[in-house]
Design goal:
4 helices; membrane; transmembrane; alpha+beta; OligosaccharylTrfase_OST3/OST6; two-stranded antiparallel sheet; 2 domains; transmembrane helix
Length: 174
């Protein structure tokens, strides 16, 4: 096959087959003719495909940003709450650590925000895993594993989040 003949290649971004013409570097969207996007090519339907590594980096950055936002990092930076609280036991007089700031819906300790944010991320990853379980190109055992892990993650995240709310607001939903 010569260098400029058409060939069918497997697109790594969505697993679809794409028809490429010419050399490996293809014209990308928005680039002048003869130029290619760094690290990508244009599929037959005009979609720009990115290598697997770049997609994983972007997903990781989005997931980390989501964790920081739902954990209340902005609140922690502005208000500067303590990492963990403490309370004195009325019977023994000893000081016990306190992870959740009781009775204050609009206040939190740093550990409280991080643990709640982690539970939200676990639930979100569970939803992503359940979505991956619907892929028809995967083996049945892999689909069952994804579905089981996804459902378990969502259930654990929900139960723990409700437990956190009940610890913070004792009379909630009673």
């Amino acid at each position: 096959m010569s260098r400029w003949q058409s060939r069918r290649v497997q697109c790594r971004c969505w697993g679809t087959s794409a028809m490429l013409r010419g050399p490996r570097r293809q014209q990308s969207i928005g680039q002048p003719p003869g130029k290619a996007a760094k690290g990508g090519h244009v599929c037959g339907d005009g979609e720009l495909c990115q290598p697997e590594g770049e997609r994983l980096v972007v997903f990781s950055l989005v997931l980390l940003t989501y964790f920081m936002v739902v954990s209340g990092i902005v609140y922690d930076v502005i208000v500067e709450p303590p990492g963990i609280g403490s309370t004195q036991d009325p019977y023994t007089g000893s000081v016990k650590p306190l992870v959740f700031m009781p009775g204050r819906v609009n206040g939190q300790y740093i550990i409280e925000g991080l643990s709640s944010g982690f539970m939200f991320v676990v639930g979100g990853v569970g939803i992503i895993l359940m979505g991956l379980a619907l892929d028809k190109n995967r083996a049945k055992s892999v689909k069952v594993s994804y579905a089981t892990a996804g459902i378990s993650s969502v259930v654990i995240a929900y139960v723990m989040s409700m437990l956190f709310i009940r610890i913070k607001i004792p009379a909630y939903l009673h």
